[in-house]
Amino acid sequence: MDIVFVNPPTGSRYPKPPLGLLHVATACQCAGHTVRILDADLLKMSCGEILSQVDDYDYGADVVGLTGTTPVYPVAAKIARLLKAETGCRTVIGGVHASIFHEQLRATGLWDLVVSGEGERLPDALSLGSIWQDTRGLTYADIPIPDYNLIDVPAYRPRYPHGERTPWTAVHTSRGCPMHCTFCSKAIFGSRYRSMPASSVYSLMQTLVQQHGVRDVTFYDDEFTLDGKRVVTLCNLLTAAPLDLTWTCEARVTSLALEGWQLMKAAGCRLVFFGIESGDQGILDTLRKGFTLDDVRRAVATVQSAGIKAAAYFMLGCPGETVQSIYRTLDFAEEIGLDHAQFSVCAPLPGSALWEQYADKDDPTAGLYLGDGMYPLLVPADMAHEVMSAVSEGNRRWAREE
């Protein structure tokens, strides 16, 4: 079967490699299908250009698979309508939006198959009807190492502070998060933590270096350092047989002691991103982050003492936010001496506890992340402008100097 996987255009200035599609496409390839990934986000393609590419494929696609978050779904649906009108191929939708709203999507008639949950079982699902739901959660024994030959690795331009060296790429080596942050959706991977063995991670990094010339990698695992033993094993492999590769990751502030960060530094880690979210303890508690501002101070100082740069994500406009807490967060980011910080608006993403509490269930796209802009729904209307201005101010404070 010939399958084209399409990553819909989002208008992002810094498209990331479509890691979800890469994993699913690799699984289908291993099952004997002919696969292709068309990254319309990277190529800035219109819906008409996507249709032309799919239609122009010499042997014609039997199946076109699309993915997307809730804000991206309207574009994916538009592409599916064009495909249904102009070609005879089957349409498949997967991703976060499909996992949450699978019954509604099935009722639209646009999709021959709606995949809910992890997509590596798509080869089985293609023969099983119009909806596929799997809540068991795959282990990494079931998941093949992704084939990066399916994407144009050097074409992706990293957003600072990622990609200090190029070529750069992104990888994903674990699934599931046991934390309980109210803004996080676990519609696909759930709460059970599963990780690729350290030896397989090393083999993947080795392949990226040798076959694609990659010099810098970003691990987009939600909690890369959650399994300390895996981190130690991987770092030992990287120090025993160095790859001339630097890397960054995302971590929890309470995850490692100094010795762990020092080992990561020796293995090529140059920067760690923490999800701090707020400089107000009351907001942190409301978001169920499970750590204190003092934990943050210690983590940043410890990471930097190991020779690794410390960066952080912050969200403004959280439930309970005030003008005072907003500027307390901006000041806290500077007080703790971060090397970089990024600010965004807190939005009720589908599948999260915040969405269950606050969102408009009749219009799940209202107020969500759209391109580079959001609208703060979780604060009084007269504070919305203050939130937007503060997000802009925070990002200006930490803008890279050219």
Summarize the structure.
This protein has helices at residues 19-30, 40-43, 47-56, 73-86, 96-100, 102-107, 122-125, 198-212, 228-240, 258-266, 281-286, 293-305, 323-335, 353-358, 384-397, and strands spanning 2-7, 34-39, 63-67, 90-94, 113-116, 131-133, 168-171, 174-175, 194-195, 216-219, 246-251, 269-277, 309-316, 340-345. The chain has 402 residues and is an alpha/beta fold. It folds into two domains: 2-133, Response regulator (Rossmann fold), CATH 3.40.50; 158-397, Aldolase class I (TIM Barrel, Alpha-Beta Barrel), CATH 3.20.20.
Please tell me about this protein's structure:
With 402 residues, the protein is of the alpha/beta class. It folds into two domains: 2-133, Response regulator (Rossmann fold); 158-397, Aldolase class I (TIM Barrel, Alpha-Beta Barrel), CATH 3.20.20. It is built from 15 helices and 14 strands. The chain has helices at residues 19-30, 40-43, 47-56, 73-86, 96-100, 102-107, 122-125, 198-212, 228-240, 258-266, 281-286, 293-305, 323-335, 353-358, 384-397; strands at residues 2-7, 34-39, 63-67, 90-94, 113-116, 131-133, 168-171, 174-175, 194-195, 216-219, 246-251, 269-277, 309-316, 340-345. The strands form three sheets. It has a six-stranded parallel sheet with strand order 2-1-3-4-5-6, sandwiched between helices. Strands 7-10-11-12-13-14 form a six-stranded parallel sheet. Helix 10 links the parallel strand 11 and strand 12. It is globular. The N and C termini lie far apart (48 Å).
